[in-house]
Amino acid sequence: MTAGSEERSVSSEERSAAQAEIGRMRHRIDEIDEQIVGLLAERTAAVRILTEHKTDEDAVRSTDRVRQVLARVEMLAERHDMPPQIARETYRSLIDQLTTMQLERLAQRRGTPA
Ligand SMILES: O=C(O)C(=O)C[C@]1(C(=O)O)C=C[C@H](O)C=C1
Predict the structure, then answer these.
(1) How far is CA 54 from CA 37, 49, 63, 96, in A?
(2) Where in the sequence is the domain holding 91, given as residue range(s)?
(3) Collapsing DSSP states into helix, strand and coil, what is residue 114?
(4) Is the ipTM of this complex over 0.85?
(5) How far is the CA of 103 from the centre of ligand 1 (A)?
(6) pTM over 0.80
(7) Is 105 in the pocket of ligand 1 (CB under 6 A)?
(8) Which of 11, 29, 46, 66 has the greatest number of beta carbons closer than 10 A?
């Protein structure tokens, strides 16, 4: 007996209905991505403005603030019934990139390499 041989066969109608649903959901995902990237661009612009008021690396890294943001997005994810670790890891990666961006800007203002 081969793996999966007990599964009932799927009709071609079911297969094409499944394909249609996948196509609809991918279209929806593309629309959501457009909103997400737009919001991320706004968030990045806000971080760029705030960066201009930071004068040292500790201020750029703001570890207490990072902890606060990560805890908050986990809480928000739970409220929206999504796995909190997805929100946490997504923001961890976002904040890492934004920290690098800020360190580069700080170095540029100081006239030294990051
Ligand atoms: O709040 C700050 O000071 C930021 O620089 C923004 C931000 C964030 O993306 O939320 C980015 C880097 C860390 O320093 C902390 C938080």
Answers:
(1) 25, 10, 14, 17
(2) 12-110
(3) coil
(4) yes
(5) 11
(6) yes
(7) no
(8) 66
